[in-house]
Amino acid sequence: VSYNPWGFLRGESDARQRGADFPFGQSRAVSQASPWAWVDVSQLQAASPLHPVAVQCQEAQMVVTVHRDLFGTGRLVRAAELTLGPAACRPTGAAGSAVTFTAGLHECGSTLRLTPDTLVYSTHLNYNPAPAGNPVIIRTSPAVVPIECHYPRRENVSSDAVQPTWVPFRSTLSSEERLAFSLRLMEDDWSAERASSVFQLGELLHFQAGVDAENHAPLRLFVDSCVATPSPDRNSFPQYALIDFSGCLIDGQLDDATSTFISPRPRQDVLQFVVDAFKFTGNSSNLIYVTCHLKVSLADQAPNPLNKACSFDKARGLWAPVEGTRDICSCCEVRNCGSRRPHGSFQRQGERFRRELSSQPDPLKEADVVVGPLLIHSWQDHSVLRTPSKG
To answer: Is residue 29 assigned to a domain?
Structure first.
């Protein structure tokens, strides 16, 4: 176990200080509020006092550093003799006495196991020595080093303003002068936040976006865009757009989808929508994250092409708004809804602030929020009912 830049893990020395708690050749960091790594080096019979394999469990990837003196004998192994995981991924770097692997949590054939409190990503380091100059003899045996990264399901795994958790998930941007945006998975009847983030293909995902408008003039909330990815990084690939073009629920246009905004709203500062469950093809982890960009306008301001919530009505072949005139949704058909334009500035009204939109994105009036990871199962592993595209 070694230090990593996310501050998730304790150093090797901390793990060694607790060595009495674990078998020889095994170590971990014991903080239950952060991810930790587990490495079994017992096969190496290492004579070195330092662990020959160090693991950093980061937010969406693991970094494995291998000391070339793998067995603590002074004989340095070659980078070409080392691979990671069942997929035998090659090293991403080699310098001096160390070889480095950097791989996504779902890459190189790693597997995911769920426990009541953790997500456990498992893989292994492979050492396959090249044949010696004389094929009659061998001086080194192959070895396998099991590696695990453990992530708490109910704890914060990010130090950013947007803080994802496992169950129940809520992501909120909040500070003294900022609006508090939220995105939650709800029960099918919208009565409460959903207790589980595990779904089957064929189920509906019930999303509820909200904003705490307490100390503000009445506000209307909009979901500007939503994108699904297999990792928390909204810019990762593959990715699939659910909502785009300033509030067009484009997923609802697909033949096998019933995705729609719920109308009418329960309140002006809340917007609900449903999406048919799906998973990414070729992604063995079956995990998805959904990142949505939320924003507000004044409640007395009429919806327009930049501030709208539009669903596709398959029966009539038309786009329909949750509120406002139907023409504000016409740009969804051509997939070009213009750009931002100024709507005003801050004004004080008595003891309350009246917030109005400006011409530029402003963290006081909009935010990205994330839900995930969601675990999507199919009745058969090879069954794929929805196929999101790359881009």
So the answer is: no
pLDDT tens for each residue of 12-40: 333 333 333 333 333 343 334 578 888 87
pLDDT tens per residue across span 171-192: 333 333 468 899 999 999 999 9
Average pLDDT over residues 374-385: 61
Q: Are 66 and 195 found together in one domain? A: no
Tokens of 23: 């078998």
* Phi, psi (rounded to 5 degrees) for 6: -80, -10
| Phi, psi (degrees; rounded to nearest 5) at 85 | 80, 170
Same domain, 113 and 254: no
Counting the structural domains of the chain, the total is: 2
C-alpha 65 chain-centroid distance: 24
Which residues on neighbouring strands pair with residue 225, listed in sequence order?
Answer: 293
Report the distance separating Cα 300 and Cα 280, nearest Å: 40
CATH of the domain at 63: 2.60.40.3210
3-state secondary structure of 359: coil
C-alpha distances (whole Å) from 329 to each of 10, 103, 274, 326 are: 52, 42, 19, 6
Least confident of 10-14, 227-231, 315-319: 10-14
What is the C-alpha to C-alpha distance for residues 35 and 151, in angstroms, rounded to an integer?
A: 4
**Helix ranges restricted to H, the chain:** 12-17, 330-334
Query: Token pair of 168, please?
Result: 């129940």
Domain of 62? 53-152
Strand-pairing partners, residue 30, are none
Q: How far apart are CA 197 and CA 171, in angstroms?
A: 14
Write the pLDDT tens digit of every residue in 268-290: 999 999 999 998 887 777 899 99
